[in-house]
Amino acid sequence: MTLVTVAQKYRQQSPLVFCLTNTVVTNFTANVLLASGAAPAMTNLPGEAGPFAAVASAVLVNLGTPSTEQLRAMDEAVRGATKAGTPWVLDPVAVGALPVRTEFARKILAQHPTLIRGNASEILALAGYQSTGRGVDAQDTVSAAISAGRELAQNYGSVVAISGAADAIIDATRTTLVHSNGIGLTGITGGGCALGAVCAGMLAITDDPFEATIAAHGMYGLAAENALALSRGPGSFASAFLDELSLFAPEELLNLRLQEANHA
Amino acid sequence: MTLVTVAQKYRQQSPLVFCLTNTVVTNFTANVLLASGAAPAMTNLPGEAGPFAAVASAVLVNLGTPSTEQLRAMDEAVRGATKAGTPWVLDPVAVGALPVRTEFARKILAQHPTLIRGNASEILALAGYQSTGRGVDAQDTVSAAISAGRELAQNYGSVVAISGAADAIIDATRTTLVHSNGIGLTGITGGGCALGAVCAGMLAITDDPFEATIAAHGMYGLAAENALALSRGPGSFASAFLDELSLFAPEELLNLRLQEANHA
Amino acid sequence: MTLVTVAQKYRQQSPLVFCLTNTVVTNFTANVLLASGAAPAMTNLPGEAGPFAAVASAVLVNLGTPSTEQLRAMDEAVRGATKAGTPWVLDPVAVGALPVRTEFARKILAQHPTLIRGNASEILALAGYQSTGRGVDAQDTVSAAISAGRELAQNYGSVVAISGAADAIIDATRTTLVHSNGIGLTGITGGGCALGAVCAGMLAITDDPFEATIAAHGMYGLAAENALALSRGPGSFASAFLDELSLFAPEELLNLRLQEANHA
Fold this sequence. Notes:
Three copies of one chain form a homotrimer.
Chain A: H1 3-13, E1 16-20, H2 26-36, E2 39-41, H3 49-55, E3 58-62, H4 68-84, E4 88-91, H5 99-109, E5 115-119, H6 120-126, H7 142-156, E6 159-163, E7 166-170, E8 174-179, H8 183-186, H9 191-203, H10 209-228, H11 234-247, E9 257-262
Parallel strand pairs in A: 1-2, 1-3, 3-4, 4-5, 5-6
Antiparallel strand pairs in A: 6-7, 7-8, 8-9
């Protein structure tokens, strides 16, 4: 499929994205999914998470603010998704900086996430390298994390997306850089977290997770560019971003600036 | 009282609405209550929920994202409310689609909620019928759920409100349809959840829960219509909706389009 | 330092503020921190909270909606902060009105918060006096709580900030009133909670917590005044407030209206 077709089908099919995510971004994530054309749903309860992962279109596991009970639900959701063949996204928020989630993230890697999406510091840490992240902020550049991303892609069969000035989308053999002006997204909380949810939705649309991830980053990044032109600060940006996601025309993806590189 | 008088008293008395609600909509719900003229308060802790339900003006129990601990607090809150005569609202989010909350919702029905507010699929499922909801989305029409709503109203002495293209307000003997253009509310998360909180506040104003529920739906729906005219997408709608709730004049309820039907 | 210098350094250093806060205001608090120039981070997990409090620039403990697990994490965070010399803020939300948090707040007072920030009813209750708060609303005036604030300041070596029509900043020997038109902040949820987070960030900038607290209240209050002029209700205010925080020029603090009073 072309990226335009993927985005069109996303709107038509409205994938049901089951999000196990952090308490800071629940509302923004749900609103981003709705604005983009998908349907959000959340539960963090063991006994519900497993069965729901089996019927949802896709699952997002975001490690931002786990509780003990949510970690159990995440474990259940990942097993449910894997068993049912539901695509799932791992967002390893603050992995490397905080211990409990770091151990948990390494454990569920063994379940082969369809996509791993994080910033450079998180991807480096998840792959076992030294990173310099503090909390949720990346202190490493995207280019410094690409080889770590490739290792994760090769070891776990996952697509890896690294958010930064340009976003790198990586699989076992390819790296594509997606260029957009995402500066507005760095001024609000949840810019990366909600992107993970949109990626999850796109994974439900096409069997090619590499293409799905590029489509998600493209739609998200271009909507952010559109919103930036209409905003005077982070408050008006957040509002305009939801508007622009809902007004986004799939054909705009024809203008997406992509840069492809084969792995060395 | 007339609907206008109910809304005026709501503003004057600023009912304290104790919300046990889901993590996706806490912020929006609190802001909706404030904008409408009420006072929000939340705790999900056993040991606090029971005593607080006894002193609050009204209680909202929304099953969107329960934790094990929150379910215990909800159980305590419902008992505290019942014992103290505090009106309470049950919002059976995703009942029918997810198992733990479904069982819990059926259990606390025995405590006779003053109001049950949900979408058509949730009302059907709560009444024991087959529904086709997926997650939080209704896949059934309001009209298909009216007889199920009437059964709940008759069996538990509750008012039942079903949200949809037109909202149906039902008690043991009457059904009133409240018409408003709520399309903006379907584009953001929490549109229904926050309405449940406003309903709870209105229940504290008048001894007639049927009238209170119509007043809440009327104020909410008309403010949403006003906001829609000022918005270009879900981000600007959410912002305009809070503005319009705060600017809402109770006299606007004179223009509310109601349609009454006796039960067959 | 002058207040202008404190605010300039805050922007330059971007303190990492670890927030253990309530589920209603997580998103707004993180966005306020980002807009003001700081970096937010959250975890509520025992095993993560202690180590993170030791490396963060400052810690906020806000008791708005504690879970049993979050209370354990808060206890751990406070001990970690104290041991590492990290400044920390206690926001005793609804203390006096709700029992579990009241007992917990009194317990962690023994760890000497750098700053205690609350409304008049909460400060009175924390100091052991009768208050008339209901839920999160203050029913007492700031002036009625100043002597209680002074007692807390003297007994625990803390700065105490009482939010109201004018905000009172108190230490063992001084009281300064910070005047600004914060009426917009009373129309949205989290206005006080997010201020506590900004205060925490400022505490990381200067060794003088009294000055830091005045700088935080000044920046916050003046940004709220600027936003009020641009808004037509609470929705547009919330958006404009984040914009104005991000556009705030530290030099605006030269116009801050302060009123100093020695203790009797």
